[in-house]
Design goal:
One of its GO terms (molecular function) is FAD binding. With 468 residues, this protein is an alpha+beta fold. It contains 17 helices and 26 strands. Strands 4, 5, 13, 14, 15, 16, 17 and 18 form an eight-stranded mixed β-sheet that branches. Strands 7-2-1-11-21-20 form a six-stranded mixed β-sheet, with helices on both faces.
């Protein structure tokens, strides 16, 4: 670690690797440290088209295509009494992948190395030391238990995932989503089917009275099958079964639709479970640092938003830091843009995910909410489900980051999220508005900058476009 490190990235998952690669491609020296030795298992296999857009920008999409991951063209919902299909190729002209995260994350980390990032595995960041409001050093342990300090950096990116070195451990300002107190349990099958009319390589979302299933086809004939339900319901299930496999297999058996899809398949075991995964940090950045991916926030598996938010935040962080390093914007301006862009994407998904758990609304209610969560002015007559498709594809976030003329009205977006929270978030018998009330979008009219990728990655002032 003798190389001068302008940017230190903590965490080598998708957010950390993408941020590091994008910065290195702008000629910035980057050091990335990761606690694990890759490859390592991680859940989160279904990617959105926005991920492809970003991965194309950093030159790794062709490697993913060649690797053999399942190409994902959309999916099919069977939600309560409604069924509908989304076809990304036909509706938005794009596609993505279903990935094995162990292979995907390793591929991204290796791509970072190939682009000049100094990647070190087996090093755990334990504590960030601040001088005033700015981080100045990071205390680390290597895999042999040796302690040392890294202090040769100008800017820090926290991509430590759910561990949340800054949000959860240093600032202690992470707040759980009380209306998303869910548990996910999942396992793998070989030879499972998907619902009829599912686009090639597509995901299935199938609801039950107690929750919902995901069905994700993977390479090698394997399928990821998972179930999401409330914590109280899962606690009851645990009391009635001896093992996680018993719980999982009983859930599959009790769903006629899912039972049919795995009827001729082989269960590969062993069931896994995650809980307490829906949260948001009180800040996404500050002087000398930005928090990206799961280190900042995570919603729910329902719309496969995890990797989208990770890559979206990482790419915007890299653009912001690159513009600061070139003197194009001040650090304060870049931090304002980053917080605004990331928080806007998170807020929109919070509203849509939350409203989908309001089961009585039906698909028309979901589509109506989606229309209100994007700026459709000047787009002409739109297909009924197009706004919904654009949101779950990450297209709306990418468009608004890059095109100043299509910025959603933030007041409308936040009000919609507030109304959803009012209906579904209850603590001690009262509505809980904390995640919306603390959202800085409520006090911001818009960002003064937009993301640009040509002639180089960075930020550009919106009013500069208007003056041309």
């Amino acid at each position: 670690m003798t190389q001068h490190t302008r940017v230190l990235v903590l965490g080598g998952g998708p957010a950390g690797s993408v941020a590091a690669t994008a910065l290195a491609q702008q000629g910035i020296a980057v050091q990335l440290i990761e606690s694990a030795q890759f490859p390592r298992y991680h859940i989160g296999e279904s990617l959105t088209p926005s991920c492809r857009t970003i991965l194309e920008q950093i030159g790794v999409a062709k490697k993913l295509d060649a690797h053999g991951f399942v190409i994902k063209h959309g999916g099919a919902f069977r939600w309560d009494d409604d069924s509908w299909v989304f076809d990304w190729g036909a509706q938005i002209g794009s596609r993505s992948w279903q990935v094995d995260r162990a292979e995907f994350d390793l591929l991204l980390a290796n791509h970072a190395r190939d682009n000049g990032v100094a990647v070190t595995m087996g090093v755990t960041a334990k504590k960030v030391v601040f001088a005033g409001d700015r981080p100045t050093s990071v205390q680390c342990d290597d895999q042999d238990g040796n302690s040392f300090t890294v202090d040769d950096f100008d800017f820090l990116i926290d991509a430590t995932g759910r561990n949340g070195l800054l949000s959860a451990q240093h600032f202690k300002d992470r707040h759980p989503h009380v209306n998303l107190r869910n548990v996910a349990i999942w396992g793998y099958w070989r030879g499972a089917k998907v619902l009829p009319d599912t686009p090639t390589g597509g995901i299935n979302i199938i609801s039950t009275p107690e929750g919902w299933f995901w069905i994700i086809p993977l390479s090698g004939g394997r399928t990821s099958v998972g179930f999401v339900t409330g914590k109280d319901t899962f606690a009851e299930l645990r009391r009635g079964h001896d093992t996680l496999d018993d719980i999982f297999l009983s859930l599959v058996k009790n769903s006629p639709a899912v039972r049919d899809l795995v009827a001729d398949a082989e269960y590969l075991g062993t069931a896994r479970v995650e809980t307490d995964y829906s949260y948001v940090g009180g800040r996404f950045g500050g002087p000398g640092y930005m928090i990206v991916g799961d280190a900042a926030c995570f919603l729910d598996p329902l719309l496969s938003s995890g990797v989208h938010l990770a890559l979206y935040s990482a790419f915007n962080a890299a653009a912001s830091i690159a513009s600061v390093s070139r003197g194009e914007v001040s650090e304060t301006e870049a931090l304002t843009y980053f917080e605004f862009a990331y928080r806007r994407a998170y807020t929109r998904l919070l509203a849509l995910v939350s409203v989908m758990y309001e089961r009585y609304l039906g698909k028309d209610g979901f589509f109506h909410t989606s229309d209100r969560l994007v700026d459709t002015s000047g787009t002409g007559e739109r297909a009924k489900s197009l706004s919904f498709v654009e949101i779950i594809a990450g297209v709306s976030d990418m468009r608004e980051a890059q095109d100043a003329s299509t910025r959603v009205l933030t007041e409308r977006l936040v009000d919609e999220a507030f109304q959803v929270q009012e209906r579904v978030s209850v603590v001690d018998g009262r509505p809980d508005f904390s995640s919306v009330l603390e959202n800085p979008l409520r006090d911001a009219e818009s960002s003064e900058y937009r993301l640009v990728t040509t002639p180089r990655l960075g930020l550009k002032r919106v009013f500069a476009d208007a003056e041309r």
